[in-house]
């Protein structure tokens, strides 16, 4: 079999655009197909931990990102009842020194704009918008390429083209997302930290978005009833009442923050179980299409970016495409499983109540910031294998 010379990528989100750039840097042409006629990234804020920013820096994007993001001094856990700090992990300059890459926060649309600009300047990349494809066969018909890469997200249509791939499932949690402008933000929102406020069966994450001069707020709570599938929607009266009830015992400042939210959007959180990611010959899933995960470790986008880098490395010069795809899947499955386990642990710890919450707080109080940072070396210090 001859080396891979070109691919078709379905989806122009973070996974698809990063994959196109990573492949182009390896001499592999990328034809991107996007169903939307205009690219407009859904969502709001995004945390780019060092394992993700390292890949983007290697693609030559760090300067453009630094002009748009901020690098928080700390990642902090605080009590949702008292606002008291529970633990802190050094970030900012400490992240660059310890993990060799920055920890940045920015609007998702800003990252997509940086990626899209880089793709538009890359001669080996082409982008077609306003074209919907639902199978690998349809994608392969778009251009005469060697491989179809499905980067079409948690609701992937192309997942059905991979035998053994499994559909997304509701996680039992919903996320409410909204923005708070700097000039109207309460004092409990710190412009120099990523803060996770913890409480029983819920938590709230807040961090600054310098590119739009607002704080990004994500309030996550457990909800047994599965909402309709799909992306964000405005919550109805009943949904907003459930949100208020989930945080009813919290500090008054947080309750007021939630009550004053301007047009909050509710996102049902779905994840993909461990199904197949490739058919071993013509199609491979990456990013959320392969392994969508809940945001308890803030690693969804980072996993997609890592996927892109490793897939490019495995395809470069490969003469046995099937072997390259199987190796990619095996390596990424091990990494993603470890990140999933961390997210599951965070979910348990963040939403703990009663004696478990008291024990959590005691353990955290005994840990020094540098010791806590060491717990993330395996995650943030990750480097894509050659």
From TrEMBL:
Pfam families: FAD_binding_3. Keywords: FAD, Flavoprotein, Monooxygenase, Oxidoreductase. InterPro entries: FAD-bd (IPR002938), FAD-dep_Monooxygenase_BioMet (IPR050493), FAD/NAD-bd_sf (IPR036188). It comes from the Bacteria. The keyword Flavoprotein applies. GO terms for molecular function: FAD binding; monooxygenase activity. Its cofactor is FAD. Residues 6-339 form the FAD-binding domain. This is FAD-dependent monooxygenase. It comes from Shinella sumterensis.
């Amino acid at each position: 079999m001859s080396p891979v010379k070109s691919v078709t990528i379905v989806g122009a989100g973070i996974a698809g655009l990063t994959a196109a750039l990573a492949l182009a840097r390896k001499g592999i042409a990328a034809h991107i197909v996007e169903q939307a006629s205009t690219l407009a990234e859904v969502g709001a804020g995004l945390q780019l931990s060092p394992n993700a920013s390292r890949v983007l820096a290697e693609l030559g994007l760090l300067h453009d990102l630094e002009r748009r993001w901020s690098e928080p001094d700390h990642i902090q856990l605080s009590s949702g009842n008292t606002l008291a700090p529970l633990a802190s992990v050094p970030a900012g300059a400490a992240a660059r020194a310890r993990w060799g890459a920055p920890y940045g926060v920015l609007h998702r649309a800003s990252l997509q704009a940086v990626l899209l600009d880089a793709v538009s300047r890359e001669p080996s990349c082409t982008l077609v918008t306003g074209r919907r494809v639902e199978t690998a066969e349809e994608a392969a018909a778009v251009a005469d390429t060697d491989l179809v890469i499905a980067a079409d997200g948690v609701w992937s249509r192309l997942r059905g083209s991979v035998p053994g791939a499994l559909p997304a499932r509701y996680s039992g949690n919903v996320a409410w997302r909204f923005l708070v402008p700097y000039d109207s933000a309460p004092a409990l929102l710190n412009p120099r930290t990523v803060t996770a406020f913890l409480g029983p069966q819920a938590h709230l994450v807040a961090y600054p978005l310098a590119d739009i001069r607002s704080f990004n707020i994500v309030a996550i709570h457990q909800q047994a009833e599965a909402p309709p599938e799909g992306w964000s929607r405005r919550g109805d009266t009943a949904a907003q009442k459930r949100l208020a009830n989930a945080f009813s015992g919290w500090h008054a400042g947080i309750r007021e923050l939630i009550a004053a939210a301007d047009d909050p959007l509710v996102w049902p959180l779905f994840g993909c179980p461990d199904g197949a990611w490739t058919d071993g010959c013509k199609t491979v899933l990456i990013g959320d299409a392969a392994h969508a995960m809940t945001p308890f470790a803030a690693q969804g986008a980072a996993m997609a970016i890592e996927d892109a880098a490793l897939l490019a490395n495995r395809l470069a010069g490969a003469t046995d495409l099937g072997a390259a795809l199987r190796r990619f899947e095996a390596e990424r499955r091990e990494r993603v499983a470890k990140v999933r386990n961390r997210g599951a642990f965070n979910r348990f710890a963040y939403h703990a109540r009663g004696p478990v919450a008291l024990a959590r707080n005691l353990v955290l109080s005994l840990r020094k910031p540098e010791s806590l940072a060491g717990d993330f070396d395996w995650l943030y210090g990750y480097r894509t294998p050659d």
